[in-house]
Amino acid sequence: MTSWGRFIKRAFDILFALVGISLTFWIMLLAFIVASFETKSFGLFMQNRVGKHGKIFRVFKIKTMKVVAGVETTVTTSNDMRITKSGKFFRDTKIDELPQLFNVLFGSMSFVGPRPDVEGYADKLQGDDRVILSIQPGITGPASLKYKNEEAILSEQSNPKIYNDTVIWPDKVIINKSYIKHWSLKSDIQYIIKTVIG
After folding, report:
1. Is the overall model pTM greater than 0.85, yes or no?
2. What ranges make up the beta strands (E) of the chain?
3. Tens-place pLDDT, residues 80-96
């Protein structure tokens, strides 16, 4: 991606993050209140993720899961007992992702790019694969669209983590490298439209 391309991408992110926040802030606030009541905790989920150049940042999401004793995993399936009733709705409608508009505005994320992962994945990439760390992670992107039903796919596996680490994650790396190599603002807009219309 050229310096000019990076400038255009960032300018687009700032403009439309401001528009998105102004249009959806009331939805975020309502979802936050509902999540706080149902999880009996602070309704905003914040977690360390790997960002551009491997820098760790805090991603913002509406909380969709409650704490269940003895259950702790970084891989979530669609039948995970920790997902609340409102959480399932927020996940299905992508409302839980709306607070990431603030991540985009602050510059730790972009509208389109590789999804930000927990430590142990993107930060462990080697060689040419590390090009994925040259841009901000995104709310959506080609890999996100291909695996929009990732939780359902994982729920069908006998060992979801192994399937994720050996099948889904390597495929995402290939897809995201291609995205960066062939980036254009037009393709970003197309990915956003495909995400919105489902």
Report:
1. yes
2. 44-50, 56-62, 110-112, 138-140
3. 888 999 999 999 899 99
